[in-house]
Structure formats: structure tokens, C-alpha cells
Amino acid sequence: MPRPTAAQLVYGSATVVCTTLALLLLSGTESGLGVALAGATGLALGLLVAVRLPQPQPQPRPGQSARLHAAHPGAAVAHRAVDGTGARHRVPAARPSQRADQRAGEHSLRR
């Protein structure tokens, strides 16, 4: 699950506060049940507003999509077939690592 953005936190919190205050002022309730109902309604509406905000999409750097497509021409087609959106996914390059026989004698715990 992605982390909430600053906009989601701000809009959700503002919606909770404003909705709860408006419901309490308009209803004029003084009972504990009425206050709890107004608070629960404000929380539900604030959560709905926060979840419905669009997530920011990372913008590809200039020339990045051409490099990815040239390096892996079938990758975009495979992703399109799997998720159905046609979105291009960034695939990290493989890192050079030590050979297994060089790492065999290393200790696994930090010193």
C-alpha cells in the first residue's frame, strides 16, 4: 500500500474538522450519541476524500522511455499483456556482484 501524500493528509484532515463542526453546529446536538455520530460521519467523509485524491505519477526523464524500449523491446508488450494498462514500468539494471565462491567465506553478521 502506498504512503499517503501530503495533499491527502491535508484534505482528509480539513474535511474531518469542517464536516464535524458543520454537523455539530447545524444539528445543535448536545448528547454524547449525537456528537459521536457527527464525529464518525466526519471521519468517514474525510477518509473518502483522502482516498479519492489522485496519486501523483512520476514523470519519465527525457529519453528514458526510448532507452528502455530499445534495451527491452518485448518488455512493454509483456507488461501490457499482464496488467492491461499499457503503462511502461521501469526495470532496474542488474548490479555486478561478487562470485559465490568469493562470498562463501564471509561472515553474515556485522562486526
Describe, in plain words, how this protein is organized in 3D.
- The protein has 111 residues and is an all-alpha fold.
- It has a domain at 6-52.
- It has 5 helices and no strands.
- It has helices at 6-27, 32-52, 64-71, 75-83, 100-103.
- The chain is elongated.
- Residues 98-111 have a biased composition (Basic and acidic residues).
- Keywords: Membrane, Transmembrane, Transmembrane helix.
- Residues 62-79 have a biased composition (Low complexity).
- Residues 56-111 are annotated as: Disordered.
Specify the number of helices. 5
End-to-end C-alpha gap? 34 Å
Structural class: mainly alpha
Largest sheet: none
Work out the number of β strands: 0
Radius of gyration: 25 Å
Helix-residue proportion: 55-70%
* Silhouette: elongated
- Give the ordered list of helices and strands: HHHHH
Work out the strand percent.
Answer: under 5%
Low-pLDDT sequence parts: 76-81
Please tell me the overall pLDDT. Answer: 76
Biased composition (Low complexity): 62-79
Keywords: Membrane, Transmembrane, Transmembrane helix
Biased composition (Basic and acidic residues): 98-111
Region (Disordered): 56-111
In short:
This protein is mainly alpha-helical and 111 residues long.
Which key features would you list for this structure?
111 residues; mainly alpha; 5 helices; 58% helix; transmembrane
Question: Which helices and strands, and how do they pair?
Answer:
Blueprint (H helix, E strand, L loop, with lengths): L5 H22 L4 H21 L11 H8 L3 H9 L16 H4 L8
Helix pairs in contact: 1-2
Keywords: Membrane, Transmembrane, Transmembrane helix
